[in-house]
Amino acid sequence: MIVELQKLQQVVWGANVLAAVILFILVVSRQNYRAFPAFTLYLLTNTALSIWVFIAYKQWGINSNAAWWFAWGMQVIATGARALAVSELCRRILARYVGIWNLAWRILLSCATVLLVYSWVATEYQWKLAVIRAERGLELAIAAVIVGVFVFTRHYGVTVEPTDRWMGVGYCLYSCFSVVNNTLLERYLNRYVPIWNFLEMLAFLASLLLWTWALRKKLPESASSVTLLPEAVYSTLTPEINVRLESLNENLKRLWYPEVKRP
Amino acid sequence: MNLYFYFFLGLIGLLLILLIWSLRKPRRSARPHQGMSLPEECGSRHTAYLPQIQQALAKEDYEYVSRRASRELLRRFRTERRRTALAFLAGLREDFENLLEVAKVVAVLSPEVVALQEFEKLRLTWQFRWGFERVRLQIWMGHAQLADVSSLANVVSGLSVRMQRAIKELGERAALASKLGSSLDGGGVHTV
User: Closest Cα partner for A207 from A167, A179, A236, A247?
Assistant: First the structure.
């Protein structure tokens, strides 16, 4: 049973790497890396790390302590890159709306910090579980931030592009699954390890497919920040425009109401 | 241990429910109701009746009536007074909600025009809600403080002024954009 699962795990691992490479090629060929630079970096980091971890396991053996620490260290780096990609998505969706963004980023960051700290101190302090908890905390924070952004967009009626929506769903579902999976791992530890890794990879494959779907088309050139006129120009021109509008109004009045006495 | 285990599972369940809810298409748009223009929505229609309400709630008037009217008439006078004050309060709340809706639309339509910082909006909302409940309780108990009613109306009229200013700025920016657009065309229509 365990041997079969290990074989299946290797197949899913291969599928993951293949899907990530295809997605990376798609992102580059469609030039979507311009819209999602942090996501592209995350994809690259994640794929490279996953290959290194595979090599490390081959080199040191699946049960070695060194391989275990190496794998988890790499996982923390990947999760960090993921957090960067998520912050990029949040900015894409909300940063245009200055007032909303000022409120949103503070609330989201506070929520993320509280969840991160809470999930760390939630159980007794044990070194062996430290990395699992750190990762769970980060994933929980990521899921909360993504959901928070969508709640904000719903509250304010902000339109979210389908690409951004699918990207967000991809991040969120994987993070939610990862939290559940890590919580189960913490509880059942040794009994759950073989299934845990397999399920984690399956969930990531599902996210990769969602992101591939989201980025299947070339995105329009990102609406680079609007170039506003200097305040001085604005204040000089506004009175002039007001005078012209007033004059236009008078002209229209004369046109529509010819009976009005002319001066 | 068990508690934390279920806590994490529950939290994830909650996040998923929120995710599904926030991705559903909203039933109504955040835009104001059809047929209502933004400037109309910016008015604080009910604050115009503040002097009359202050007069109606004045202690002197009540004392005068209580000296001269029969007990039945006085009872009716109290009931009517309360009903009017509560209707005024409901109107103020309606104005306030409309103005908040306008602020939301301005924040979405024109990110550069910050009509009201969102933190300030939260503060004003709490201030209004708290004041509203306090005044309502006072009215029910029969001794409304005129100062509290006025400060509630001031919150609404202050917000209304700021919204009108933001809408004006929106209009001016739109006009400026159109002027610049027609200048670029090279053959702009001269109105003077």
Answer: A167
DSSP run (H or E) holding B152? helix B146-185
By the 8 A CB rule, do A260 and A254 touch? yes
Nearest residue to A140 via CA among A164, A171, A106, A184? A171
A247 within 8 A of B181, measured Cβ to Cβ: no
Pick the closest to residue B88 from B61, B141, B51 (CA basis). Answer: B51
Q: Model pTM?
A: 0.66
- A-contacting residues in B 145-184 (Cβ below 8 Å): 172-173, 175-176, 179
Distance CA A158, CA B21 (A): 15
- For A126-146, write each residue's pLDDT tens digit: 666 677 777 788 888 889 999
| Strand residue runs (E) in A175-219 | none
Angle between helices B146-185 and B118-141 (to 10 degrees): 150
Rg (CA), chain A: 26
Q: Do B22 and A156 touch (CB under 8 A)?
A: no
Contact B108 A97 (CB under 8 A): yes
Residues of chain A with C-beta less than 8 angstroms from the C-beta of B1: 123, 187
| DSSP character string of A22-68 | HHHHHHHHTTTTTT-HHHHHHHHHHHHHHHHHHHHHHHH-TT-HHHH
**Pick from B26, B172, B191: CB nearest A154:** B26
H or E segment and range at residue B56: helix B50-57
Q: How far is B132 from chain A (nearest CA, A)?
A: 23
How does pLDDT run across B20-54, given as a tens digit for each residue?
Answer: 999 887 665 444 444 445 545 555 677 777 777 77
- Answer yes or no: do B118 and A103 touch at CB < 8 A: yes
Contacts of B192 in chain A (CB under 8 A): 243-244, 247
User: Given pLDDT bands bounded at 50, 70 and 90, which one contains residue B134?
Assistant: confident
CA proximity to A143, closest of A170, A104, A107, A162: A170
pLDDT at B13 over 90: yes
Indicate if the pLDDT at residue A215 is higher than 50: yes
Q: What share of chain B is helix, strand, coil (3-state, %, to 5)?
A: 80, 0, 20
